[in-house]
């Protein structure tokens, strides 16, 4: 049993990491900014600190008093992304200093690169600015006595409660009357079910073999062809699939169009080998075909 400090514990991924760790007998301390988030965590037995990601003194103190840190929190504001990254770097810096020389785990979160490299592995350096800076900072702490790791999440972390890419795609497809893909639809999205992603954080925390500095890929599906995603969504909505141009994708899917155009197949062989991680939940296409969440009235996108 360890006392883990978590940021983003009430978020989409964090709300699955938290019960997994509690069920394993770990104690959790977490930050919460809102009353609703604080109550949600306290009702599960989590010790709550009322603070935000910008309160670096509070973050450092909580980290120093813990047996390890899982950093899931991030300000998802695309309109001021530079500020979100600045806050993230400051939080990571605070954690690194607090854990310096302790050999305690610091598990941070990043994204599988969807630009600059088609087939990234766990050994591929971060290539997607500005989040690559946070990866480099986290892994650098391994030389200062911190068991630091980065978990890269794919563009689509799916499952009930998802309010991100797939939710937006389904909503916009319904409005448009078709499920679009660019060109021949052979661009690819890595994906993972949120429950399988959450399991990785537990495995990294409890690992006795990881040395520090490793990057892990939470990729259940290495790369799903976008035309298959479109077909699954179209089938649920009762609309047609349609090949569209990048310009039309921008008109139909707004901020998501750049991600639809990206083509990434992400490897996770090393992650599975290092952790013994074996995804158990439905893959992306099967989840779309059976999910009520993405097609229920009232399901909203947060971005």
From TrEMBL:
It holds the Pfam family Epimerase. Residues 4-208 form the NAD-dependent epimerase/dehydratase domain. It comes from the Eukaryota. GO terms for molecular function: aldehyde dehydrogenase (NAD+) activity. GO terms for cellular component: cytoplasm. This is NAD-dependent epimerase/dehydratase domain-containing protein. It comes from Cryptococcus amylolentus CBS 6039.
């Amino acid at each position: 049993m360890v006392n883990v400090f978590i940021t983003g514990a009430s978020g989409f991924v964090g709300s699955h990491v938290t019960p997994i760790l509690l069920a394993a007998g770990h104690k959790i301390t977490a930050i919460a900014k809102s009353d609703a988030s604080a109550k949600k965590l306290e009702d599960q037995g989590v010790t709550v600190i009322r603070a935000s990601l910008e309160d670096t003194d509070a973050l450092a103190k909580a980290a120093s008093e813990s047996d390890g840190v899982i950093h899931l929190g991030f300000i998802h504001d695309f309109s001021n992304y530079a500020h979100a990254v600045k806050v993230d770097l400051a939080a990571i810096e605070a954690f690194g200093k607090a854990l310096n020389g302790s050999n305690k785990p610091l598990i941070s979160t990043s994204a599988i690169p969807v630009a600059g490299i088609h087939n990234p592995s766990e050994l591929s350096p971060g290539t997607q600015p500005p989040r690559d800076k946070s990866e480099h900072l986290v892994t650098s702490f391994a030389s200062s006595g911190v068991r630091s790791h980065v978990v890269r999440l794919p563009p689509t972390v799916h499952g009930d409660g998802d309010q991100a890419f797939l939710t937006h795609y389904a909503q916009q497809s319904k409005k448009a009357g078709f499920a679009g893909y660019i060109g021949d639809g052979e661009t690819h999205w890595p994906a993972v079910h949120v429950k399988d992603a959450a399991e990785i954080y537990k495995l990294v925390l409890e690992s006795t073999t990881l040395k520090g500095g490793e990057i892990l890929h939470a990729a259940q599906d290495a790369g799903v062809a976008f035309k298959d995603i479109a077909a699954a969504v179209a089938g649920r909505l009762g609309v047609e699939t349609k090949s569209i141009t990048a310009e039309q994708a921008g008109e139909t899917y707004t901020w998501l169009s750049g991600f639809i155009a990206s083509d990434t197949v992400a490897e996770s062989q090393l992650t599975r080998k290092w952790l013994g991680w074996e995804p158990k939940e439905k893959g992306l296409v099967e989840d779309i075909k059976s999910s009520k969440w993405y097609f229920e009235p009232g399901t909203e996108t947060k971005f």
